[in-house]
Design a protein that fits this description.
The protein is of the alpha+beta class. It is about 40% helix and about 15% strand. The chain has helices at about 35-45, 80-95, 140-155, 165-175, 185-200, 205-220, 220-230; strands at about 10, 20, 25-30, 55-60, 65, 110, 120-125, 125-130, 140. Strands 1-2-3-5-4 form a five-stranded antiparallel sheet, covered by helices on one side.
Amino acid sequence: MTVAEEETLLRGGRTTAEVVRIGDTVRRPMSSQSAFVHSLLGHLEGRGFAGAPRFLGVDSSGREILSYLPGEVPNELGEFTRSQLVSAALLLRELHDATTDYQLREGCEVVCHGDASPCNCVFVDGRPVAFIDFDAARPGRRRDDVGYAAWLWLDIGRSNLAPHSQGRRIAEFFLAYGAIEVADSLPAVLDAQTELSRRPNTPSATKRWAQRCRAWVEQHLAELTRAVNAPTV
């Protein structure tokens, strides 16, 4: 194997096991979702959407070949700046808009990424520029993806963040995305938390975390609602 062909295990974000980099490509195991993802990535490329890897084929080991996107991928959730949150919301909006004419969206509004968290996002110079790991992609509604993304990008449910501040950040995230009423932001977040906690293949620890996050939102719902609906300065 030449130097260019050496495999380097990718460790950024919450990487799927056995994902490696070879030169300017990423090799990942195939799954039952792969055919849909490959078609979706081809559609996004055709639409000129730069915020996703390119599907390049299948290697001799039966692994999918994707273009490598240089940058940093967070290992954990965190507290992001307003500029980073706005960039993430705009990136998600651009992704959704690029799928409105995708033939496999099954009559749904868009194709959702399905796990548009910071841990599946490439940052360059501190700015979110691309989403990776489309294994959970599926046809759906904008609010489903945006509610989930807002929950994880803002780490909604972490007890050391004041409800009023979180409410304002939630409003800013939804305003930056557009196309969804800000008044629907908290219901969208709650729905995302409920859906993950009830998903059959969700690990038990993740289900408990989602339930705790939902309990925090419900506990502070009145204050969060006031903050979300407060006039924008």
